[in-house]
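Lab notebook page, bench 4
Experiment: in silico fold of construct C2
Operator: M.H.
Input chain length: 354 residues
Purpose: comparison with the prior construct
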Amino acid sequence: MKNIFLAFSFFCASNFLFSQHFSEKVDSLIQTKFTEDQGPGGVFLISQKGKPVYEKAFGLANLELNVPLNPDNVFEIGSMTKQFTSVSILMLEQQGKLKVTDFISNYIPDYPNGSNITIHHLLTHTSGIKDFTKIKGLSEISQKEMTPQMMVDFFKNEPVDFKPGEKFEYNNSGYIVLGYIIEKVSRETYEDFIRKNIFEKIGMIHSYYATDRKVIKDRAYGYHKKSDGFVNKSVISFSVPYASGSLMSNLDDMLKWQIALNQNLLLNQKESTKAFTKYKLNNGEEIEYGYGWHLKNINGIPTREHGGSIFGFKSMGVYIPSKDIYVLGFSNCDCNSPTQVVKDIAELSLKNLQ
């Protein structure tokens, strides 16, 4: 009995030392990029098999009030919103209300060339539609309250960049159109659809369609860095990035999201597989993108990745399906991207977590 107790004690001590050593390695990776204790910073999560093994915050959530960040803070997640838009489309397909092979003219009859552009093209960034973030008049609407139709009208008559399916080129406009289609098919606003069918269904109680007006508990404030120091982020209307980048969330909620995807709580296996398939261009060339996720690898081990960037904030998530490891990082200064740090942590986690 004594030997069993000693063995158990040794096992616990070894686990504690390993965990402490691993955390120190992760801290070191993060602190190479997030170096300012008295400036904005970031929050980071590592989970394995749905359980957090590392969760930590660095820097300040609010510079004026000198409030430190904590892992519960809510951040704008930028283009990680596209995951929620793509899953919403697949949920509607699962319900028999649309097909990803449908042409967008089925839903927006006056869309130029809409009889040649499919929902699939929009999801995979292969539509050729002009990205609205590259249009000169963007600054004129950036603070206006835009309806989805107004946003679509803003770019729909721009010359296309290429024929549908001819190449992959990351494109925010396609996800604006997808948001508009979600509204037309569901007869709900995009905000309400996401809230009712995703956030409330899986318990994402700290996730929202972004707003600067409402009081958001645990909100992290966003910043830019200028030559003379930090300034508050530029104000935009979230009706402009809309379904391409207007959601807010925190680490724990995004872990709930990942678990829901793994357990098919929102999509059946058939629809879920569509999100994580590498698709091909017209010429047969394979692209490293599914529906709302980049499909890449770390040393040959497949990953599902996506980042986000919006005024004052940057985000990045890497999921490793074979190990059920999820690494996530949010920054509340667009001067500090967590992208490479999160990738480095994911690589470290592969080597250290069993």
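Observations: Confidence is low (pLDDT under 50) at residues 4-18. The chain has one domain: 34-352.
Next step: discuss at group meeting.
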